[in-house]
Amino acid sequence: MNRRTVTALVINDLRQLARNPRVLVFAVALPLVLWPLMWFLTSLTTERRQERIESRTYRYAVADPDAGAAEAADARMWLERAMAVIGDDGRADNAEPTDGPAVRFERVEAPDDVAAALDEERLHVHVAWEAGGEDLPGEEVDRETVGNAGRSAPRIVLSYRADLDASDSAEGFLRRALERTRTELREQRLAAAGFASAPADLLPLQRIETASEEQTSGLLLGRLLTAIIVMMMLAGGSIVATDALAGEKERGTLETLLTTAASRVEIVTAKNLSILAVAFATSVLNIVNIVVWMQLDLIAAPAGLKLAIPVGAGLLLLLLYVPAAVLLSSSLLLVSGRSKTYKEAQLLFAPVMLVAMAVAAIPVLPGVELRSAIVLLPIANLGVAAREILTGDYDWPLLAAAWAVTGGAAALLARASLRTLSAEKLITASELDAADLAGGPALFPRRVARWFAVLWALLLVWQLNIGGGIDSRLLISINMALFGAAAWLMISRYRLPVRETLSLRVPPPGAWLGVLIGAPAGLVLADGIVRLASLAMPIPEAWIEAMAENMGAGLPLWQMLIFFSLMPALFEEIAFRGVLLHGLKNRLTTVQLVLVAGIAFGFFHVDLFRIPPTSLLGVFLVVTVVRSGSIFPAMAWHGLHNALALGSARVEQIALPEQPIWWHYVLAALAILLAFRLMKRRTRAAFS
Amino acid sequence: MDWTAIRLLYLSELRAALRERAVLINGILIPLLMYPLMMWVMFSGILFVTARFESFASRVEIAGLPAEHQALLEGLEEDDGQIEITEVDAPPGSAAAAYREEVEDRLLAGELDAALIFETTVDPPGNAEVSLLSNGSSDQSQTARGRLERALSAERSAWLDRIADEHGLAGAEWQVFDVRSNNLATGRQMGQFLMGMMIPLFFVIMIANGCVYPAIDSTAGERERNTWETTSTLATRRIHIVTAKYLYVATMGLVAGALNAAAMVVSFRSFLGPLLARMGGGGGSGFAFELPLTSLPVLFLTAVLLGALIAAAMMILAAFARTFKEGQSMVTPVILLVIFPVVVLNDPSMEFTPALAGIPVVNVVLLLRQAIAGNVLWLQLGITVLANAAAIAACLWLASRILRVEEIATGSFEGNLFQFLRQQWRPAGGKA
Amino acid sequence: MSTVQVEVQSLSKNFFDQSRGEVKAVQEVNFECRGSEIFGLLGANGAGKTTTLRMISTVLQPTAGTARVLGHDVVSDPVEVRRNLGFYSASTALYPRLTARETLTLFARVNKYPAERTRSRVEEMIERFGLGDYAGARIEKLSSGMKQKVSIARTVVHDPPVLIFDEPTVGLDVLNALDLQKAIQELREDGKAILFSTHIMSEAERLCDRIAIIDKGRIRACDDLEGLRAATSQHYLEDIFVHYVTGNDTTA
């Protein structure tokens, strides 16, 4: 690599940018003003809302107390006392007294129709009271404030509307004032009864924080730092990245560049450096900008955040973020290189940003430690590492591993962006060709992903919207009808040859034996995957119960077999191992095919915790079809698998055995391999 | 006006647009799929986080717990989630400081999540000063701290009850009174409140988002592709071409807004409803996400008004651009103008006064919020329509002025709207 | 005759297209080009001219065969090939926001022209192509004729012995096209080996020392104009072209 060439290219890129005032204004200068302004406006809105709540006059009405004069007099007294202390607790920051008027409550005539008065906001809160009695069944009583003593106290009922702002605030003010009044009254009665100490002196609590202020603030900062930095790097980097390859392609300067003596490596390096330089510069600008605004007191820093990072930790963080930055710039460059126009590049940046942000937000999740599988996830591992460093925890070997993993991913992406410069892609003139115009089977491979994406979205919306509430048999039937209909639509729309598409062939006889061995073994391995996954994402108890219920626990056996075993085996196989596999097979290598088609099947099980085991099942079924060249063994496997799962669930309610036994899994894995071996066809040609 | 020609041109624009990937994604796919997807991710995320918290076994140590307060331990065990409690005797006075230091070290090393240390005081019997030690830089420790605090507070009030009982205060006399809040809002009303806070804001943004690509594509984009010349030589007047384009951009905005509102309602029902039900919100009846029927015409009306307004504003600005990229930066101000009111309006205490009804965009958000809550305020509705119509008329008038200038129509004008306005006004001022 | 600068042997290129399958863009092409020679590739659109030239300039990788520029192989030593090569086509654009001088400096550097001589070389180019008055103006402000001059200067700024002009006159008006042709002829006088592709017969007739007629990825004939005339007994290049491409004679 020639330093002079790279420098010349970087300077060229930066010069282009510097001479583009429009981009500088809109992409660099505007956000500098805009974000703090938004922040400022948001806090201003919150403040104004607080003021409005406190300066409003709330109307309350009291129902005529008709249950005994003495108690009515008590109630009036309590209410009066509450009115005297109302609003004292209003402001969150008690630091300075408010200049504005305090909360005012105005009593109005009790209306006949309380609900209507509340609805029309003639009234904000209605006070009624009931004589003491037993608790109503199923009623929640706040034990902390009410205590266990006696259940026959009179009860003050505040009727209000939580969806109307004024009413909601009025109820809050009044309730807090009443509770305070009650506490005071109790203390008085206790003192009168001869209890000498103040209740506040009972079990006085002192909170002792063992972590230093830097460490506690470090946790807060560490959760967000990576996400903020990734966002700023992406926003800054994308300014150059759109132009870097896609823009140059569009203007024709890329071809000029490719015919010079600059090597591809030099070009990609230079582009990466330009993106990094601009991303770094804009990030620094943004951070300085925010700090300045904070210094000017125009925007407030989040509570509990101290922006003090020790120099050593700061330097380490900087070093840590280097591979992350390269990874981001390479991915932007890759997207830019794969798009034909500036516009397309811009459109494709959105998913890159979403994915990067999702990964960078992982440190926000509680209790994620670097010493776990997370160390293998680029960017996220550095985010978690940064969080640990900021809380004063240095796990050197894992830090090095995280650095290496992200660095490796960055190198891979850089290599991939290098490949986009091999110009075949620059030259294929038009996206449209004969297949687009004629339609038919040739077009199907390019459309299959789209179809299944739509199917997934449909399933997602339907299952989560209505699915929970209906009979599980109906749910399954509709799901299966959806798959069947989609398969039929695709086959007829693209005139696909049915026999070939669905692999309707006679399988080798060994395949059946393979299924008999493979399906039980697959179930054991699925159990293993669930365990493995639950290390990273533990399954809530409530979910397992709900799952058992959804599995139609109360149905007779023959119905369960039909709905949970036979129907999925038929329809899901037709859709996934038939149509989907057929659409994907010519575009992917066998390994890719197995992974993509298998995991896609998992994702159709929508529920987070079901995705890992069903993906594994999907992988096995794809291998089955690929090896045997026929869909029938896959159907058998699927049906058997579901039936066995149902059986084991009936026996032990999907509870996992307490201790996993490792040799079970080893045995199962070996059995699976044997099963696949048995399935192999004699002639290779069939599946291609 | 030759409406046949306009209709033809309009339909051809629409057809072309539906074949353009960027328009399809921004105008249809994003408004339709963004919220279901976002909420699915959120739903899964929250499920994940709660499960993680449940799986934390809090390791706590309790030193010197007085015999009177053994119930504290039961309270801790009953609390959700797993807990490992180590109970130790109170260290003697001389060793107290050393013990405390040792606990702090264990907390910092992460061997322990939180500790309660009781130091008995004289009065009343059973009382103690309690220290709660925790490590603010660890999630586990914060969870454990919360559990200990809750348990201690419950024990304190139970103890107070026992003391009261001993002093002859019982039943109503000790409890004094009970406060109960009775939320009269139905689940439907609660749902409408939540939807009213969110739907209008995203609705406005999505309409703007749906307009951006068509607005730029049908002006600057045409120039960039050199199809503008072809279009402008069609056998129809320029005003017809522009009207057709304008209608097309407004339609795309409208479609994006409508799809988005529908997708929002669906995702509220699918994800937010179950989630809130899990967290026990919505009073007794839970949340029900249903739009009142009366809000649908208002929704449609506002979509039309906003689409027409935003489309006009964007096209005026984009008319000066010669490339797609230029157009993009030129319409940015419109997007900002739309987003700013939306940020400020994120406040449920804001009342929809007739004065506010005079401000375009703002009035639409507030009008919709009321409509979703089931109120139709006729005066404000009237003012809103008039205000937006006036703004649209102003934009269209400006557009007709701009189009009369040959240079802009042919794309040889260099500069933007502001430079144009300055040029237009300067000679007029000079003559006066 | 001077030495062979560009040597192409059995060069082939196949594209793979998802729905059309294998597309054979260039098949078994052989030719060579010497110093002080303009070698023309004459063919219709899509005949394989651009693909051939792009392979020689290393933008594309050949599927089979070899091509060498000054003895450097395009596959094994692409950077050295490009260092000795200037590539000009209607689609090789310039950075609009750079000035002419900056453009020339950039490309001299990127093409690894000796650092100490870069400045004087750039000034020499500015003078030679008459860019003096405009050398400090941004390229986006220049007329198309001026842009074209900067483009040629960009192509030769690192003084490469081999030049490739891929349909350079597409989209130019008559005067600009003539200017360009003159510049190419002058470069031949400087001893450059020039590969020139076009689908315009008159251009090929006027400029090229030798002409290869290419159709459907294959070279149908390769000779100087006289040789082609003798072989086909046609006078006009247009008729010769039709003769080779369709196999029919237009004149009776």
Give the radius of gyration of chain C.
19 Å
Main interface: chain pair and counts: A-B, 103 and 99 residues
Structural class of chain A: mainly alpha
How many beta-strand segments of chain C?
A: 10
- The CATH homology group name of the largest domain in chain C: P-loop containing nucleotide triphosphate hydrolases
What does this structure look like?
Chain A has a four-stranded mixed sheet. Residues 90-101, 136-150, 427-435 and 684-688 of chain A have low confidence and may be disordered. With 688 residues, chain A is mainly alpha-helical. In chain A, α7 crosses α9 (264-295), α19 (510-536) runs antiparallel to α23 and α21 (557-584) packs across α24 (632-652). Chain A has 25 helices and five strands. With 432 residues, chain B is of the alpha/beta class. Chain B contains 15 helices and five strands. Chain B has a four-stranded mixed sheet. In chain B, β1, α3 and β2 (83-88) form a beta-alpha-beta unit. In chain B, α9 packs across α10, α10 (295-318) packs across α11 and α10 (295-318) runs antiparallel to α12. The longest helix of chain B has 42 residues, at 238-279. Chain C has two domains: 1-84 and 161-252, 3-Layer(aba) Sandwich (Rossmann fold); 93-159, no CATH class. In chain C, the strands form two sheets. Chain C has a six-stranded mixed sheet, sandwiched between helices. Chain C has a four-stranded antiparallel sheet with strand order 2-1-4-5. In chain C, a hairpin with a 2-residue loop joins β4 (64-69) and β5 (72-73). The radius of gyration of chain C is 19 Å and the shape is globular. At the A-B interface, α2, α4, α5, β4 and α6 of A face α2, α4, β4, α5 and α6 of B. β4 of chain A pairs parallel with β5 of chain B.
